[in-house]
Amino acid sequence: MEIENSTVVTEFVLLGLTQSQDIQLVVFVLILIFYLIILPGNFLIILTIRSDPSLTAPLYFFLGNLAVLDASYSFIVAPRMLVDFLSEKKVISYRGCITQLFFLHFLGGGEGLLLVVMAFDRYIAICRPLYYLTVMNPTACYVMVLALWLGGFVHSIIQVFLILHLPFCGPNQLDNFFCDVPQVIKLACTNTFVVELLMVFNSGLLTLLCFLGLLTSYAIILFHVCRSSSEGKNKAVSICTTHVIVMFLMFGPAIFIYTRPFRALPADKVVSFFHTVIFPLMNPMIYTLRNQEVKTSMKKLLIRHMVC
């Protein structure tokens, strides 16, 4: 279906995060700091894992993919948000809105599935260590990563397909600072109950089930670790705790946004801001700060390049 034939609206006006100039200035500086400090840190994580032969375990392979996903995710909303802060009229074309929405859910869905894969990796490593090298072989790891990228694509394309079939012929003001499913659907010139229900099942229910599944799996892992007396007990607890922290940062806001009817709440913009701008840049850093091997390799890499 051609976009021009499915809608009269050719652009959307973004109302932004806030109308307060003071708050906008604070948010602008905050995002700029994150981009100048933490984003290069994510690229350093990727470079460290790629260049250090000792970091070849599946855990570090998945951590590198997490850094790639989060770094890519951070380019979807924040750069345009910075530009909009300096513009009087915040406008995004219909095609640009759909594109932003697609990549938002493509990468977000892929990251959610990656956390499931990382939980499976930790379960095999801690609860079934004798089978670890057999199950988590390089081929299996690449297949899992390919599957999560494909899963994110399918998850996103379903939502885009449903939205492209909606007519937009009236108001074009999005009460947000980016294009997302709840705000876009509310502007359609038709009854969207069925579409909203499908969106809740596609995003909300799957997100909630993944979250509960991950919570249960880590509870089992931690219970198994606490009963054991192995030397790596503290390290296993530290790694699993890190995974749980990132899991809450990833799924908590998503559950709040997508598992309820698409009605505006006062906290929506704040939750969306942390979910799309702040947390993606922080997730790999949380892993790094709690992983001694990566920190040591990173220091060696920096020292080697400074000496050179």
TrEMBL record:
SUPFAM superfamilies: Family A G protein-coupled receptor-like. GO terms for cellular component: plasma membrane. The gene is LOC109681062. GO terms for molecular function: G protein-coupled receptor activity; olfactory receptor activity. This is Olfactory receptor. Belongs to the G-protein coupled receptor 1 family. Residues 41-287 form the G-protein coupled receptors family 1 profile domain. It is found in: Cell membrane; Membrane. It is a multi-pass membrane protein. The chain crosses the membrane at residues 23-47, 59-78, 98-120, 141-164, 205-225, 237-258, 270-289. Keywords: Cell membrane, G-protein coupled receptor, Membrane, Olfaction, Receptor, Sensory transduction, Transducer, Transmembrane, Transmembrane helix.
